[in-house]
Amino acid sequence: MISTGLQHLLAVITAALPDDDGSSFWMPPQVSTVAQGVDWLFNFILAISVLFFLLIVVAMVIFVIRYRYREGQQAEDSPSHNLALELTWTAIPMILVVVIFIFGFKGYLDMSTPPSNAYEILVEGQKWSWSFTYPNGYIDSDLHVPVDRPIRLVMGSQDVIHSLYVPAFRIKMDVVPGRYSKAWFEATRPGEYDLFCAEYCGTSHSGMVAHVIVHPVGEFETWLEKASNFLETMTPVDAGRKLFQVRGCQQCHSVDGSAKTGPTLLGIFGKQETFADGTTITVDENYIRESILEPQAKVVTGFEPVMPTYQGRLSDPEIMAIIEYFKSLDGTSSEE
Amino acid sequence: MAAQHHDDDHDPNLAHHFESTEQQRQSAKLGMWLFLATEILFFGGLFVAYTVYRGNHPEVFVFGAHFLDTALGALNTVVLIFSSFTIAWAVRAAQLKQIKLLKWLIIATMLCAFAFLGVKYVEYSAKWKHGLLWAGAYDPHVEHEEAFETIEVEGELHTPEADVEIIEIEEIQPVAEGEIVEPVVAEVEIDPAPVVADPDSSTIAPAARGPEGLAGPVEEADHDLVPVEPLNARVFFSIYFMMTGLHGIHVLGGIAAMLWLLKCLRRGDFDGGHFTKVDMVALYWHVVDIIWIYLFLLLYLID
Amino acid sequence: MAVDNPSHDGAAVGTQNQESYLTHGKGILSWLFTLDHKRIGVMYLVAITSSFFLGGVFALLVRTELLTSGPTIMTADSYNKMFTLHGAVMIFLFIIPGIPAAIGNFVLPLMLGAKDVALPRLNLTSFWFWMVGAVFAVVSIIVGAVDTGWTFYTPYSTTTGTAVISMTLGVFILGFSSIFTGLNFIVTIHKMRPEGMTWFKMPLFLWGLYSTAIIQVLATPILGITLLLLVAERALGVGIFDPTLGGDPVLFQHFFWFYSHPAVYIMILPAMGIISELVSVFSGKHIFGYRFIAWSSIAIAMFSFLVWGHHMFTSGQSGITNMIFSALTFSVAIPSAVKVFNWLATMYKGSIRLATPMLYVLSFLFLFAIGGLTGLFLGALSTDIHLHDTYFVVAHFHYVMFGGTVIAFLGGLHYWWPKMFGKMYSERWGQISALLVFVGFNLTFFTQFVMGSHGMPRRYYNYVEEFTTLHQASTIGSYVLALGFFIMAGYLIHSLFRGKPAPDNPWGSATLEWETSSPPPYYNFDRDFNAGDPYDLKSLQYDPATQGWVRKDPQSIVLAEGGAH
């Protein structure tokens, strides 16, 4: 009872009082099984820090006032060392940091050891988008997971080092080209949460934001089923739009006329494009297909040759759907 | 310390902020040792890179070392060790005010340094000729000036291991027995790798010496699988050129330092037995020598 | 030679015509080719404070862009260059040379009662290397700048199209400047201490400089080779860091942090040395726990080489590796903590004067405490996973580098200013500026802790809406900071022309640099010393006539067989 009261007092002082979802002055909502442990250690260190900080600052203020310079007076004689005192104030911090280290290490072991029945999702990071491949082969640009189920992420990068970070889960792991890195989590609360890239990777590093959608019990499978069949269940234009949105295109191409890293796709079909070498072309199905599979072949003047190839990553039906979608971007229908 | 400075007051070699020649000498020595520590650490980073890469990809180093001429490397090692001897003797000569001997010893050391660079030039130009350069410029080939014979082979080449169809052989360099040849990588499209041609059934004259894996094993008849060029073989040459190149730059620095010593000698700095400058340059030169010895061991003597 | 500078009895330097190192030798060449450590120190001071202002401009541009969650005043590419240049300029041009070059060069020989450093020509060479390195950096900025972050992580740094090579070469050359300075200081401290000054009778600022110099000499070569490898990878396609050639991009991180972690101790150790001096003098008391502070400086220097992996907890290195680095990281925290207690204990029962340098001491204790304590969150593995690469880290290192090193640098600058230039600055404006810097700093950076723990990643051009208010508060804080610095530049420069002439010993310190005039003559001293306890403040008394402090017994520290050089 007293210790709860004390914890409460400390929490108030350190502004660590949690809300219902676990969020506090310092922390975002606690949505994974490890979040509580991480936050607990954070608050523990915070309490120790506030304690020592107050000790230092209060002592400092008191000394400045109490021992301020007075005309004609010199400082009192006092010893300039004291072994017992110095040993004590060395030993106590030492013990405290050992405790902190142990808790940190234990928490880390939990965070880096996935349970054996984890549901595996493959993650690909590239400049500047994420793609998540589900066990049935379906690829999405957002991470959908079922609640209360351990998820294991196997991650690779197409180009430079990225880092997958979900603040609400308290997890982070670098995504490195040339090797696979792994992370795991178990979400405890349905909802939608931010997923950031946390390793600087160039122009749109801050644009490389995805979402984690935690589905309530039973709903994840339904979603996956429906999403995987989008080519069958949607019209080609809608399917093309979905592909455009989830396969990393919209990070660099707008549909509203504004130029981003790549040219806008508004009115693209039938447009006259001029390339860096001076040649021109009227945009047709073949040109769009070539731009997707061999993006460096013809680069529109004024843009950099930075588009990655989708060779092997988009099937022919998918490319056809995208082409249909582009045809629909003629400015007559409303697009985002 | 303060009391001594009157004796050295008029010593032109004593800088004004030092109390005594001894203090000056000790300061120079400590400074030079610290500088040498930084040099060791500087090269140390490259040795770490070497260790990490070789630990992960040993086959790259085994392959690459074939293209280094151990004899030339050994020659360079001997040259540098000898030059360490001459510069160490030079320090002694300076201590004993043997100016003429000192001069010739410094010159001898410099000649050794030039000889070292000459040998490296020979090695580097051979590599350049055959495209055995660092990763970005790696393009192994045989120069057309070298004598070669076009051999037409018809039909299939049978080997004990598998039926192999030689699609195209660009060039094979026949060599007379005993002739020393810079090993050459000839591009042979063989499908699949690795392959050893059976000397009994092959119609291609075997080379007296050449990189293994191409037409004709020379000594053994037991047809071991021999390495063809591993993926990333080019990284060996990256490491080779970086390490020996950086070392070569330091050799040049040493030559410059010795030229400076000769200038000081002509100015009469060493007439009074002040040997500190020679001592410092000698220390530097010994480190350059030691680093080369390790390079020789690590790059040339890979089994 | 005749002693024509009779100021060692404490008399204030009266007229403007007084000969000193500033007037000995005229013209720009006499400065650029000088061997006088004091002139070299002053040139460094000008150089690094200019760099600080340049780095500060980049910072203000970064913070202004972050006023809104979307694009504000520049494109993403420009923003990425801004934060990169802010980091690179501040770290390599300002803070690493910082205290050792600008203050250490001036003060070290004087504190030893010596005429110069051991290797004056090397000292000048070190300065020239700084200039050349700075030129390379400026060239890089002009031809398109760099957008890799100051950490140059591969493969981004090996593939980006920006001017990486010229900047990396600039930093490489700056590394030589750092090595030579460190080398010089080690030799000077070993070989040129005066009679009576054993190792444990040295002022603690020299222990700080010495331990820093050890790191400079041992760690900087690793940076050198790392940068050379980076250049080779870009220019020659060498392949050590390229995964398509079997290389390892994470290897770069190991190389880089093996230098850059010790580098942060290059930044803080001299700062701690300054605080030791200031807290003692302005408390009118002997420093508390001298031996511990001295040993802890060496211990920190040694331990600093063992913890680089704590920058890489999420890089994919093994659990064992992470555990070892976490454990070692905590061990290096202890000596720093204890120093803070020692400084506080020095104030206890002291006679505390709140002159401007002392305000910076108080600032330091406050800010460095926060900076150090927030390191605990980052050293612990489970919390670091969450906090790594967020604004929490940005806040932490600004609290220790800025709230620690820069604040101590400012304290030292205000402390030794009278000695360097013979002028006193306005105490009133000094206090105002110190307050603005303190308030502005906290407003800028404390909000960043909260942002970071809520998940705001670093190096972000745009950010999610929820962080807007915190970012705006932070930006306002940065403008307050800028104001504080402009005021500081104002009154300091003003003092050069209109400041009251400074006495030999305006603050009442017992270290040897105060035994000569302010500013010193070019030959530093007119006598040799038998040094006493550098913290024996009771051996001094205030002299109202000169408004300075004098020794009760001027002969007590003079070497018996003295005499002009």
Q: Summarize this, please?
A:
The complex is a heterotrimer of chains A (336), B (303) and C (565). Chain B has 303 residues and is mainly α. Chain B has helices spanning 21-56, 58-65, 70-95, 99-129, 233-267, 276-300; strands at 157-158, 163-169, 188-191.
* Morphology of chain A: elongated
Radius of gyration of chain C: 24 Å
Major sheet details of chain A: 5 strands, mixed
Strand order of the largest sheet of chain A: 3-2-1-5-8
How would you describe this protein?
- Chain A is α+β, with helices and mostly antiparallel strands and 336 residues long.
- Chain A contains eight helices and twelve strands.
- Chain A has three domains: 2-56 and 85-112, no CATH class; 119-228, Immunoglobulin-like, CATH 2.60.40; 233-327, Cytochrome Bc1 Complex, Chain D, domain 2 (Orthogonal Bundle).
- Helix content of chain A is 36%, strand content 18%.
- Chain C has a single domain (36-557), classed as Cytochrome c oxidase-like, subunit I domain (Cytochrome C Oxidase, Chain A, Up-down Bundle), CATH 1.20.210.10.
- Chain C has a two-stranded antiparallel ribbon. Chain C has a two-stranded antiparallel sheet with strand order 3-4.
- The longest helix of chain C has 35 residues, at 249-283.
- Chain C starts with 27 loop residues before the first helix and ends in a 14-residue tail after the last strand.
Q: Which tags fit this structure?
A:
heterotrimer; A: 336 residues; alpha+beta; Immunoglobulin-like; Cytochrome Bc1 Complex, Chain D, domain 2; 3 domains; five-stranded mixed β-sheet; 8 helices; C: 565 residues; mainly alpha; Cytochrome C Oxidase, Chain A; two-stranded antiparallel sheet; 16 helices; globular; disordered N terminus
